[in-house]
Amino acid sequence: MPTRAIVVHYHELWLKGRNRLFFLNRLSDALRRILEGLPVDRIGRPGDRILVWLGEGADTAEALRRIERVLGVAYFAPAQTVERDLDAICAAAWEELKDEPFATFAVRAKRSDKSFPYRSSEIERAVGAYLLARLREAGRDARVNLGSPDRTCRVEITPGPVLVYARKIPGPGGLPAKTGGKMVCLLSGGFDSAVAAYKLMKRGAHLVFVHFYGTGAQPGESSIHVARELTRQLTPYQLTANLFLVPFEPIQREIVRYAPEDTRVLLYRRMMLRIAAGFAERTRALALLTGDSLGQVASQTLENMIAVDRAVPLNVFRPLVGDDKQEILAVAQRIGTYDISSEPFHDCCPVFLPRSPSLRATAEELECAEAGLDIPALVRQGVETATFERYRLVNGRVERIARKAPQLAPAPAVEAERAFHQEPAAKD
């Protein structure tokens, strides 16, 4: 009897040379976590794919829905595992196609186990002829099209099971979660920072989120609820997430009190980077991440971004720097953050907005503007008044645990991720 399974394919991991096993183990771990709570018999790696064997009573649709958010997956498909027999393969192929609407079809076979007695081309001809005959018996006017078929039935002869499937679902691609080091993301609540976060998570970075909020003009207008929902939406991609919520308006008032008006927004941003760097030190993160796009607003001119970055010694990554707004919004809609970021909320950055903001500031000018500020005290205030929330994926749902942020303590030296850096260097 055929067994239901999900076949998972990856592409980019093939480029990792002798590091490949590390990445494949992380991908398998992510699949186990994302499928937690569903009846899964086992997860294995027959040949150049990962196979998830579903247990009795498993909800295949739910399993597929969850795997859609596993980074590192190129595509996946619900499949049948059948006996190593051509008749069994033909019967499984018919089961896969008989209820599907199509006018043209093709069969593609891949034989990674060369001990199987039929070559790929022979399998394709035999299965195709069988399907064509069954379609004719059913009164369907379908034909073979090897160039651009409406539906393709795939047969994979692996060193383990034989896989037959006809539904191919694209995955997010990229690299598995927690393979690229830790970063702190300044999560604003708008469209850009959430998309920037997703782009870096796709490269394997594990993100700690920091959100700066104001009190809001009306009750319920604070941006905290948006930051929480964005974190909840993004957590499945990296399985766990920490969110620091920083009350920023008292710090803004100090900046307004002592600094020139035209530099206010840039000084807000410099202070945010400093506070985020404090969290980076204590969470052993290696860099900062923002959603800035070159020239999108006055504070994001090239000169201003360089001047702002000089406030911290850490590297500041901006994966959206060359993207326009339409490109950013398209990704936000795809990953499910668009509607969340569209909700009304009180953004703290426009508070006390200058009438004519500086467009070409230098780091030296901003340092002079900050001369009247007690910067270490303000950074400490931002860190110590923050609240800390932890998000984790449990049985397919994101749970939130809220608690007060820990008191400051001397931070240990930052270490690279041991499992990654002990692997030999990849060969291109």
Descriptive overview:
By secondary structure, the protein is α/β, with parallel strands linked by helices. The protein folds into 2 domains: 3-170, VC0802-like; 182-421, Rossmann fold (3-Layer(aba) Sandwich), CATH 3.40.50. It is built from 14 helices and 16 strands. It has helices at 20-34, 60-67, 86-97, 120-137, 191-202, 224-238, 249-258, 264-283, 302-309, 325-335, 338-341, 363-369, 375-384, 418-421; strands at residues 3-9, 40-44, 50-54, 75-82, 104-111, 143-144, 151-157, 162-165, 169-170, 182-186, 206-213, 240-247, 287-289, 316-317, 387-394, 397-404. The longest helix has 20 residues, at 264-283. The model is unreliable at 406-428 (pLDDT under 50).
Average pLDDT reading: 89
- Number of DSSP-assigned strands: 16
The domain count comes to: 2
Helical amount among residues, as a percent range? 25-40%
Q: Radius of gyration, Cα only, in angstroms?
A: 26 Å
Q: Could you tell me how far the N terminus lies from the C terminus, measured between alpha carbons in angstroms?
A: 43 Å
The coarse overall form would be elongated
Q: Which architecture of the largest domain would the CATH scheme give at its second level? A: 3-Layer(aba) Sandwich
**CATH class membership of the largest domain:** Alpha Beta
Structural class: alpha/beta
User: Regarding quaternary structure, how should these chains be classified?
Assistant: single chain
The biggest beta sheet is recorded as: 9 strands, mixed
Task: Point out poorly predicted stretches.
Answer: 406-428
CATH topology of the largest domain: Rossmann fold
Strand content: 15-25%
Query: How many helices in DSSP terms?
Result: 14
SSE pattern: EHEEHEHEHEEEEEHEHEHHEHEHHHHEEH
CATH superfamily of the largest domain: HUPs
